Amino acid sequence: RVPEHLEWSNEEGVDQMCALLGIGDLDTNTNLPNRGQIADFPEGAVVETMAEFRYDSINPVVATPLPEILKGIINQAIVEQKLALRAAFECDRDLAVQSLLLDKLVDLSTDKTVALFDEMIAYVRDYCPEW
Question: Among 19, 22, 71, 120, whose CB has the most other CB atoms within 10 angstroms?
Fold first, then answer.
């Protein structure tokens, strides 16, 4: 039960925090490290999964096995994300551009992708001087 002095915002993040505090239970989709809830994917890879939010815990729900075509699509996303993360930690422009080129949502030529990356970095350079 939400205390009377609080006003409900309808944000699911609030529902998640309330469930973690013991104010009700919540079952919802969230991003969690894979701890076996999706078979055949690397342990620790962040995957979107159904999870049970309970007092002081978030427990992923084990999914039924995925069709092979979906495994391929998800594995591609895992590779892209690992590459992007490595690029960010190493401030490696070439790796960052490679991760963009792998992304199926970036439907640009290599030259335009490089230009897009350079433009994005220019906008955040004050916040990321190491780039």
Answer: 19
> What's 3's DSSP letter?
-
55 to each of 74, 75, 113, how far by Cα in Å? 31, 32, 45
pTM: 0.68
* Cβ neighbour number for residue 85 with a 10 Å cutoff: 13
Residues of the chain with pLDDT under 50: none
- CA 130, CA 121: separation in Å to the nearest integer? 11
Query: How is residue 16 written in tokens?
Result: 């998640």
3-state secondary structure of 96: helix
